[in-house]
Amino acid sequence: MAEGVLSPGVNLEAFSQAIAAIQALRSSVTRVFDCLKDGMRNKETLEGREKSFVACFQESLHSVSRDLRCVRGRLPAVRGTGTLERCELERLSNLVGKPSENHPLHNSGLLSLDPVQDKTPLYSQLLQAYKWSNKLQYHAGLASGLLNQQSLKRSANQMGVSAKRRPKAQPTTLVLPPQYVDDVISRIDRMFPEMSIHLSRPNGTSAMLLVTLGKVLKVIVVMRSLFIDRTIVKGYNENVYTEDGKVDIWSKSNYQVFQKVTDHATTALLHYQLPQMPDVVVRSFMTWLRSYIKLFQAPCQRCGKFLQDGLPPTWRDFRTLEAFHDTCRQ
């Protein structure tokens, strides 16, 4: 019996027998209700239907009595009363015992006692997070095993070539020297006469561009090396500086038309992506941005109108640079 103990105070063998006894009892009770549901049917005469119903009901009740395994006493057939003494199922329930409550839950065991589960379901969330953590650890182990099988040797072992003669690793695009970034921006500035670009580095080596497009708008471009991080478009007459004289990279434009252009510029950043040639990305983005020189003069290429819902066509196609309203481009 010692092998059937699940934990201190819990008898696993008695627990299994009790579950089997409960399942048999539930089946017998189900047959009783099925007999009551069917009633007196499938017989031609009334007397035959009554006898069949009584016989079926008695047999079902006796099955319930047998499944309870009573020591003494008997269930009544249809009417009358009877007494049931201590039965086998009751004996098994007493043998199961109670599980030990000496688990090292510490303070986490008090989380299940929270009376306001709807407002602070912390305990259920912790359980869910624990399940996901186990799943993540399991799948990470599988992925690690598969990757180890396909391990690639990317070392610089070149058949006896010494470390001094090995070629030096070229710098990646994330660590380009500031002189190279300045040279790329100056070339782009010379490409577009209608556009003036002012470069500054207020926070170290990362560049910040203030692009003025004619007398239409101003664009604040925050860069990380040659990668454009974010852009903010404002009107030509709007203030782009904070009170201490620094470029304001957080506040939005006060005009809805330039807020729309800011959203489109963010979409353009996601479209023009070429990590191997970041200078081409910056040049392509500036070419696309230059098409807004006629923001208030170009009609929509689909509907032919200059204004729709009080706004000019703020969208520019990434390839043709044609103007469209935000709703007409689809």
UniProtKB/TrEMBL annotation:
<protein>
    <recommendedName>
        <fullName>MED27 polymerase</fullName>
    </recommendedName>
</protein>
<keyword id="KW-0539">Nucleus</keyword>
<dbReference type="GO" id="GO:0006357">
    <property type="term" value="P:regulation of transcription by RNA polymerase II"/>
</dbReference>
<keyword id="KW-0804">Transcription</keyword>
<keyword id="KW-0805">Transcription regulation</keyword>
<comment type="similarity">
    <text>Belongs to the Mediator complex subunit 27 family.</text>
</comment>
<dbReference type="InterPro" id="IPR021627">
    <property type="entry name" value="Mediator_Med27"/>
</dbReference>
<dbReference type="GO" id="GO:0003713">
    <property type="term" value="F:transcription coactivator activity"/>
</dbReference>
<dbReference type="GO" id="GO:0016592">
    <property type="term" value="C:mediator complex"/>
</dbReference>
<dbReference type="Pfam" id="PF11571">
    <property type="entry name" value="Med27"/>
</dbReference>
